[in-house]
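Any chance you could type out some protein's one-letter sequence along with its backbone structure tokens so I can compare the two?
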Amino acid sequence: MTNTLPLNDIILRFPGDEHNDESYQLLELPGEVLKKLEGWNGSFPITIKGRPSDDAVLCTSDATFALRTVTISNSLLLCRAPPIQAPSSSSSSTSTLLKRSKQDEDSLTFEQSSRSIDEDSMTINESSKNGNEASTSTAKRIRFEGTDLLTKQDKRSRPTLEIRDTRHEILECVPIAGNVERIRTLLRPTAWKGIGSENETGFGGMIHRNERRAGGGYADDVKLRKKKYTRQQLLSVIQASEVELDKGLKERNVVAVDGTLLLLPPDKLHSILTILLTLLSIHNVYEHSKSVQVPVKEVMRELETYELESGLIRGILRLFGEIDDPEVNKTRGNKSEGERVAEDENDSEDRINARGKEERGEVGKNEVWKADIIRLVREVGNGILVDIGEKGMEVEMFLSMWRENVGENWNELVDLDLLKGEYLLNSSTSTSTQTVTHFPVHSLPINPPNRFTDLFLTRSPWKAEDMRPFLKGLTRDGDGKELDKLVARHVRVVRDQYGIWWFPRKT
């Protein structure tokens, strides 16, 4: 890194009254973000999200970070050249961090920085000392002298910097899981009502709300419009990265219809999925095959008899598989890599038009649907589980009903492990049978202490393998170390001849 420190002494001064109200926040970017930022062409997507009642988070395209204030013992002085001395052609000027020297109260030590922040034409440089010898070699000493001792030649030769702000803290980024559960909260009021219902896809839905009158009473006839969200609107209010949002939308069965997002509840979706599995059984050449292709036109023709919108049908097919056009892929596959890259760069308008056709439900001539059988079977079971609710059902009866709904071709795929994080098993004290009840992970608090408290109020002790599915969303996917830290903080582990048990840790 080039040393930007001045070769000679400099003059420090405070700005005039017109600049006294300036204030800055210093943000320390994590290494993974900084590495992407350095190799990124164009503007790098970094967004700080949060409602007034939320803790702010920083989001990139694929990761989410909590912002934590860290207090530092040294004062960081943010400096820059006075406006009248700054070159007109330059968009930024050198700034320096000053650290008070212990040996001399009247002197300041400049240190070169290993990280920089550029904001409003200001660059901040800071570095840590590597021993006394290393720091001495790069240090420059400066003394504040009376103005009467400075000659005109001194003033002309010494550069001047203004102290614009003094900071004693920085913002640190801590990796966390995106809060995608708000998706369900925002979209539930306008969720799909099922086959045969009049489910408007625009903003026409109305909802009643009691509102206090001027005289103290309540008016029951006040109507408010149910708000529908586009994907872009949801991205602005969900504290998660774009990748996490897309994954969360798919996991919660959300589709785009006519440009707005529609939540499909499992119990309402159940009947459509059984129809699709029956249709797939007809086209299944190999028994118990997990990969089946069906022409999209045939699926559309079958489901449109139930008065379903074509845009909704295509959205469901996208949720539970892929829509592919062999002819388009064949044509694209015959092109060179350079031609495909040029095509991708120049067809943004075509992509927008294609996305619009997708949401309107327009069907290509040769399109086929490659169904995800495992996901279909899982959601059928989840729909039955939602209907059961807290009243429960014997496990064998539940599995029998599940197999019957998916059909003979797919009944071997039925397994309770597909529904981990959605149910609880309870053993009867009077009989040897077990019952299954609906207990979804999304009904639990997102705050870790509250999550563990609720889980131990529901059952204590837990088997380790039974509780782990209900810890989803507390840490980033695949971050086993952070999850182990949470468990160690809230759980007391006991081992006996029956296995490993988790008890609440007493505080």
Notes: DSSP finds 17 helices and 26 strands in the chain. The CA atoms of residues 325 and 367 lie 4 Å apart.
